[in-house]
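Q: Joint fold for the lines below.
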Amino acid sequence: MALWRSWLRQIKQWWLRLRCPTEFLCDNCRYDHPSACRRPQRPNATQCPDYRPR
Ligand code: SF4
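A: Joint structure:
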């Protein structure tokens, strides 16, 4: 079951990445703000499990 969830999560991330209009996910992410995201890859993330389109 955990494997299935992991697989679904990867498919979802792949789909969101395909639909992102910019090179970096952060440019189109609702968490692209210092108080909302402390990930070191911000603002140039090309892969991120927390990415949510605006
Ligand atoms: S959550 Fe990920 S994609 Fe969104 S701003 Fe932070 S690092 Fe970038």
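Q: Anything notable?
A: The longest helix spans residues 2-19. Residues 25-26, 29, 31-32, 37, 39, 41-42, 45, 48, 50-51 surround iron/sulfur cluster (CB under 6 Å).
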